[in-house]
Structures are given as structure tokens and as C-alpha cells.
């Protein structure tokens, strides 16, 4: 069957079959997706068994709540960001901190602190390297933004996230830091380890068939927001990680890999009240002023809340 015949068939099923008011946007997207799927079935000669095994895969991935992991794993979350970047560039926005993907593991409701927060609950202190990270949130005018919200979340030494990993304390490694009068944020935590897709999960099952690993470099997630500014969703990667530029979620970007310095000076250890050398990362966030010329950066998606 040729593509024109397929389009006619699909139109008859999805559009012409409507005998009551329909949602035109849903009709438009469903007609396109069903049409593209039918063309793929035709062109690739996808068998009925392959078709049904694909659907049962999606059923299993849904049951395992891993579709939020499959999307970045297939590059789709990165693709949405590429389009958002293009729209902002078209609106003349440039020079801000690069965005990158949110990922599926944000949890709303983390404790809020002003200026400084300690993220880790201390349970991994014997094995973890202490991390101090600090910086300033700037507006598009280059001025510091007091009262900005820096939401931060990252994995523990096992690459797991509190809330999803029930063995961790509530909101471990998750905080909302409100910048101080100088627009500064700072936190103490532990250096995270990279994340890996659950080895026997549905995402890794597909990645195996694609001959791909499911690893993310060690990274720290951020939402940075302030009244009158465009919300920034981004991450930083921990420099030196073996997967730094080999991220299964394709989220690594230039400008999001700040240098990690190792502090060993005893006076500085005392000042930070730590008794071992620690890692330090300086990183500023540059936000855009809100503008109607670019689509809203606010993304509605299912998110966990505790
Ligand atoms: O580490 C996680 O949060 C899970 C993996 C997926 C994407 C991402 O990280 O952005
Ligand atoms: Fe992540
Ligand atoms: Fe992560």
C-alpha cells in the first residue's frame, strides 16, 4: 500500500469517523501518529507479532513507571529541549545558562532554606567526598537576583534518588535554596555518583537490544526561578566522570561542566568544619527576563510530590 492510500484510510478512521464535536488538536496529533505508524508498519513490513510485542513492551514500561526514563533514553527529552532552545534563539534570547533535561526524578516539596543548605543527611559521610557548591543567580541585566529559588536534587553514592529509593531519608539530597540579598546560593552535600537505568528494567531491556548502556554521568539537577524571569531547568555534570560525554540521556552540554577543585588547605577545612579535603564547585546561573516572544519554559508533566 502506498502512503497516499494510507493517509486516506487513516483520515477515514480518525477524522471522518467523528460524529460529534471532537478536540481538533487531539485529532490532528492522533491522525499524524497513526499515519506515521501505519507507514512504518508498511515500509518495515512489521509483523502482527512485532506490533503486539511492542504494545506489551509499552504496557510493561508503563507499569514499571519507566516511560519517563525511556523518553530521555531515546533522545526525546533532549529533542524537546533542542526545540525550546531554537524558539528562545528566535526570540533573541542568548547568553543565559544552557538548559538541559529535567529527567523523571524531581520531587516537589523539598525543605526550603535561605542562602545555604546542607543536602545530605550524613549517612554516607564515611564513604562520600564532601561537596560545597556555590554561586550567584543573575538576571538578564547582569544583576544578582535576591530571593531566587534554586531547587536542587541529585543521586547518592549508589546513583539513587531519595523518595524513589525508599532506603533514603525524606528529601535526602533535595533542597530548595532561596538566594540571599546578594543573589547567592550555597550548599554542602556529597559528590554524587552517576545514575544507571535499573539493570533489569524495561528501559535497559530496550537499550540492550539497541546495544547501548544506560548510564548517566554524575550530575546535579536544578530548577532556578525568580519572579519576572524565565524558569531554568538544567543540570551540571561532574567533571572527570567516565560517562561525561557518553550520557544515555544525551543531556551533557558545553557550559554545564564546571571545574571541580579539591580543597586541602587546613584553614579552609576548619572554616567549613570538615576534617578531610573536599570538592568545591563554583557555578552561577544566568536567567532570562520573562518574554512573550518565546514559548513559556514552564513544562506541565506528572511529577512526584512528598
Ligand atoms: O538520573 C536521573 O535523574 C534519571 C535519569 C534520566 C534522566 C536525567 O537524569 O535527566
Ligand atoms: Fe537525572
Ligand atoms: Fe539524576
From TrEMBL:
It holds the Pfam family Dioxygenase_N. It catalyses: catechol + O2 = cis,cis-muconate + 2 H(+). Its EC number is 1.13.11.1. Residues 133-161 form the Intradiol ring-cleavage dioxygenases domain. The keyword Coiled coil does not apply. Pathway: Aromatic compound metabolism; beta-ketoadipate pathway; 5-oxo-4,5-dihydro-2-furylacetate from catechol: step 1/3. It comes from the Bacteria. CDD domains: 1_2-CTD (cd03460). Its cofactor is Fe(3+). Keywords: Aromatic hydrocarbons catabolism, Dioxygenase, Iron, Metal-binding, Oxidoreductase. GO terms for molecular function: catechol 1,2-dioxygenase activity. PANTHER family: DIOXYGENASE, PUTATIVE (AFU_ORTHOLOGUE AFUA_2G02910)-RELATED, INTRADIOL RING-CLEAVAGE DIOXYGENASES DOMAIN-CONTAINING PROTEIN-RELATED. NCBIfam families: catechol_proteo. Belongs to the intradiol ring-cleavage dioxygenase family. This is catechol 1,2-dioxygenase. It comes from Massilia consociata. The gene is catA.
Amino acid at each position: 500500500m502506498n502512503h497516499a492510500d494510507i493517509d486516506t484510510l487513516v483520515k477515514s478512521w480518525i477524522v471522518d469517523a467523528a460524529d460529534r464535536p471532537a478536540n481538533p488538536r487531539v485529532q490532528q496529533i492522533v491522525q499524524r501518529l497513526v499515519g506515521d505508524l501505519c507507514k512504518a508498519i508498511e515500509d518495515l513490513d512489521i509483523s502482527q507479532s512485532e506490533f503486539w510485542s511492542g504494545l506489551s513492551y509499552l504496557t510493561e514500561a508503563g507499569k514499571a513507571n519507566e516511560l519517563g526514563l525511556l523518553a530521555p533514553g531515546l533522545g526525546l527529552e533532549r529533542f524537546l529541549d533542542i526545540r525550546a532552545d531554537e524558539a528562545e534563539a528566535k526570540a533573541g534570547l542568548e547568553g543565559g545558562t544552557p538548559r538541559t533535561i529535567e529527567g523523571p526524578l524531581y520531587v516537589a516539596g523539598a525543605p526550603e532554606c535561605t542562602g545555604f543548605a546542607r543536602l545530605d543527611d550524613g549517612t554516607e559521610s564515611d564513604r562520600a567526598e564532601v561537596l560545597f557548591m556555590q554561586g550567584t543567580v543573575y538576571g538578564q541585566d547582569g544583576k544578582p537576583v535576591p530571593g531566587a529559588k534554586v531547587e536542587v536534587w541529585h543521586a547518592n553514592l549508589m546513583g539513587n534518588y531519595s523518595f524513589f529509593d525508599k532506603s533514603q531519608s525524606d528529601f535526602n539530597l533535595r533542597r530548595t535554596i532561596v538566594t540571599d540579598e546578594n543573589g547567592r546560593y550555597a550548599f554542602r552535600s556529597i559528590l554524587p555518583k552517576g545514575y544507571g537505568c535499573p539493570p533489569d528494567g524495561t528501559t535497559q531491556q530496550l537499550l540492550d537490544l539497541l546495544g547501548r548502556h544506560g548510564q548517566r554521568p554524575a550530575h546535579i539537577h536544578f530548577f532556578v526561578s525568580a519572579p519576572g524571569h524565565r524558569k531554568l531547568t538544567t543540570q551540571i555534570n561532574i567533571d572527570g566522570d567516565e560517562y561525561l560525554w557518553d550520557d544515555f540521556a544525551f543531556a551533557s552540554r558545553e557550559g554545564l561542566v564546571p571545574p571541580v577543585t579539591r580543597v586541602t588547605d587546613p584553614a579552609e577545612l576548619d572554616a567549613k568544619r570538615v576534617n578531610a579535603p573536599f570538592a568545591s564547585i563554583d557555578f552561577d546561573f544566568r536567567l532570562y527576563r520573562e518574554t512573550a516572544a518565546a514559548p513559556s519554559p514552564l513544562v506541565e508533566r506528572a511529577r512526584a510530590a512528598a
